[in-house]
# Entry
Amino acid sequence: MASDHAKVAADALKDGFEQAKSNGFVDDEEVYDRVSAQLDSWKKANEDGTLKSSTGAISFPGSPTRYDPRFPNQNQTAHCWQSYVDYFKCINAKGEGFKPCQQFRKGYLLLCPQSWVEKWDEQREAGNFVGDLSP
# Structure
């Protein structure tokens, strides 16, 4: 059952990404090629049985977000929030050029709905963000 869902999900992601590219939302060929290759690898892993699922949640090989034991459940809302806060704490402490901060950025960009990120960015800029971003 999970493998059928994985195939449908991978196909839907690929179709959506193709549509985004054709509509001009994705203009970076390198990003397009990397995402397409990742989606193809997930589909291949599903077909050859190496896509793992122990609880109904699918673990995609090569996923840019790592397992975080603070967030063991499928609902990733808290993981989204914490990744956002951790990214800004990290860059406030080490600067934007500090490469390890990018893992938090990838996490919140992958886990958080864009509307949340936009709202939080507006709150940060206005100085009324509720999270503590001090290092």
